[in-house]
Amino acid sequence: MYHLLSGFYKYLFQLDEYYVLILGLDNAGKSTYLEAAKTHFTKNYKALNPNKITSTVGLNIGVIDTDGCSLNFWDLGGQEELQSLWDKYYAESHAVIYVVDAFDRDRIEESKAVFDKMIASELLKGIPLLVLANKQDLQDSMGVREVKPIFNQNAHLIGQRDCMVMPVSALNGDGVDEGIKWLVQCVKRNNVVRPPRNQSDN
Ligand SMILES: Nc1nc2c(ncn2[C@@H]2O[C@H](COP(=O)(O)OP(=O)(O)OP(=O)(O)O)[C@@H](O)[C@H]2O)c(=O)[nH]1
Ligand SMILES: [Mg+2]
What we know:
Pfam family, one: Arf
CATH architecture: 3-Layer(aba) Sandwich
Distance between the termini: 24 Å
Bound molecules: guanosine-5'-triphosphate, magnesium ion
Shape: globular
CATH superfamily: P-loop containing nucleotide triphosphate hydrolases
Organism: Daphnia galeata
Main location: Golgi
Structural class: alpha/beta
Order of helices and strands: HEHEEEHEHHEHE
CATH class: Alpha Beta
CATH topology: Rossmann fold
Radius of gyration: 17 Å
InterPro entries: P-loop_NTPase (IPR027417), Small_GTP-bd (IPR005225), Small_GTPase_ARF (IPR024156), Small_GTPase_ARF/SAR (IPR006689)
Number of strands: 7
Subunit structure: Interacts with SYS1.
């Protein structure tokens, strides 16, 4: 009887697990964004001081439980020599958040080239993509209207998947909630193509 009840309890309360990659050039604001997301979605979470966040060499992880699912984030280092590690995570990912430094016009083409290479991967085919035009708190940052056409140039690589470009400031948290909420709807919708993991699978 105990086993039956505990099995039923697990069935009712287990959360579907989704894995979300956070990618983009170094200095784009990926780790700052992950901190902001954890702060917004985790009660009593004590955020790191943004000045204490250093360039990522390995991997930062974070988990958010929201809307009946558990989002597991993998925030990878964006430096050129670390980009070759990204594709090791593609097959396991349910979504990608690609962070763009919208203030850095000098590197926007570099960011777009790296984005194109990433989305060309077969392992990410059909996977929802959230492109964040970050650093909107800075005057003269490019807005979505400017960033979107640049990242849309190779629309055939984006294909049929859900793809959205949104403005955000990882530093002050503006736009973080909207992005995560959109992503949750997308990964749920994409359940058939890439099913979630179940906590009981682990
Ligand atoms: N003004 C402003 N600065 C930001 C924002 N997001 C990040 N930054 C700053 O940008 C710098 C880089 O941020 P990180 O979060 O470390 O960037 P990253 O993409 O994780 O970089 P790597 O780990 O090297 O790949 C830091 O000085 C942040 O404080 C933002 O929304 N606005
Ligand atoms: Mg980082």
